[in-house]
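the two lines:
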Amino acid sequence: MRDGAACVRILSLVLAQQQAGISRRRFIKGSAGAVAAFTIVPRHVLGQGQTPPSETFGGALIGCGGRGNGTFEGLGPDVKKLAICDVKFLDHADNKTVYTDFRRVLERKDIDVVAIATPPHWHALISIAAMEAGKDVLCEKPMTRFIAEGLAVAEAERRTGRIFQVGTYGRFSANRRKRKLMASGLLKKNNVVYIKRGGFKVKEWSGMINPKPQQPPKSLDWDMYCGPSPLRPFHPHRFGGSHRGYWDYEGGGLTDMGQHYFDGFSYEYARDDTSPVEIEAHAPVAHPEACGMWGWVELKYADGLTLVFDSGEWGAPYDRKEPRDVSESDLSEEDRKKLAAMPDPEPLVSFPEAIRTRKRAGGNADVSHRCVCLMHLANIAIRVGRKIQYDPVREQIVGDEQANRLVNQPMRAPWHL
Amino acid sequence: MINKLPEPDEHGFMSNIDKQVVDEVTDGVLAGGAAGIEAVVGMFKGPGEGGDYKAHYALHCAVIAVGTGREEERRMVASTLAKCVGRDLPKGVKAYLLQELQAVGTAAEAEAIGAFLCDDELCEPAAAALMAIRRGARRQFENALPNAAGKCKATIEQNLALLQRRRGRRGAGG
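prediction for all of em together
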């Protein structure tokens, strides 16, 4: 009811503005202080596909660490920041514009869009809750902490019809011609070997193996920070960026950088709806809590494509195969003609465009889930120190119960998928 | 033997790790059978006391090594951990053992794990281990529920609901 009343008020004001011949922007600028509470009409008041009179979206930033503002900027220029939320704001939260609990933010009807820049162990739960509350979501990479979370986010995206995009954009500048070739089904044999050497920040985003427990800062809700992950004794290295080095929150430099590196790969090589079937890591068994060193990981797809992560930071470099790319010269003359006759891939929809048009975003939950699964599978192989087999349809590890327990990890109550 | 495992570097990371040494230590621990596992657990200290990181890592490597294809050794490791977790040990040590049982335990260890479902400090790692094991978990949650309060009760109720949901999905063909 309150939103409906606000909608009527703003429409009346816009009508008055038009009658007075005042431009919309001047009107908003001149009365910004007075109308701040109702210049933003929530999208849901007007229904999908409708543009609010203000042409502005109400936004919130959840997770205000190093990537917060950068992620929020990805929402586009028409999203006004109405609320910020972080578990470290205990000392100055007012539950009006500054929050510590994302659930209070999601209750607000004037917020249409949220940018999520918390550590990754919160990404899935907040994304799902936000979409269920009718918000569109731009989520910082990596999309998830483990595989089952991605399936749940993708299901929520379909069920709610909201827009979801991961905050990495490799696919938007990817080679669409290669995508067309790879998706065409015309390649008789896929012997692509794609090797990414270096850049994984393996040592930089490692975890401490012997952190001495400390008292958390008074401004930090440590229990809420841990959230669905195990409640550990506080140590500053588990927080504030270096959280990347702990399995409880992320998956080391591999997960942190991987979604950037392989978002474009997933699109170009048409891997958006499948996953590798065999994953082997050259690494010592990982520490149970702290991410650590690894040499390389080889991921093989059922069609023959091989993807390799070579850290260059530990052990001997990968030398099993040489890189090999694909080109139209791999096709017969007849198949080249068939390829030319096929339609080009549709342009990908950016997040700002998606929230206006309600078209699905280019980096939506399904494709981003498949991309981040590469890193999750590699990390599982690193953690168990043996070759694993993966069923990309059932999205389960086959024949290795211990490894499969890392696909869907238990959460601490009250949090669950 | 476990002293061969790496010291943390200047950042506290295990960056100077040698896979061959790790494998040798792991084989040595497992060769000692249940006594070997108990000896490693005996090196654990309470939270904050420090210095037991090599023992933690050695036990975890043993747990991972027997994860698949070495069923007899897996049973030995899991049953030994289940025995150890029932002893008079600091809560932090028990939490670590429960975490390892989450990786290596089966229904055979469910009862030993379920004994901690009403312990405010251990109900969460115990529940996590049971949910990973799945088989035998429901009975443990149901048995503990009447005696649970606060956080433990909420943990048990949530996990019972999740198990019920899974059962419903299976029943529906999902």
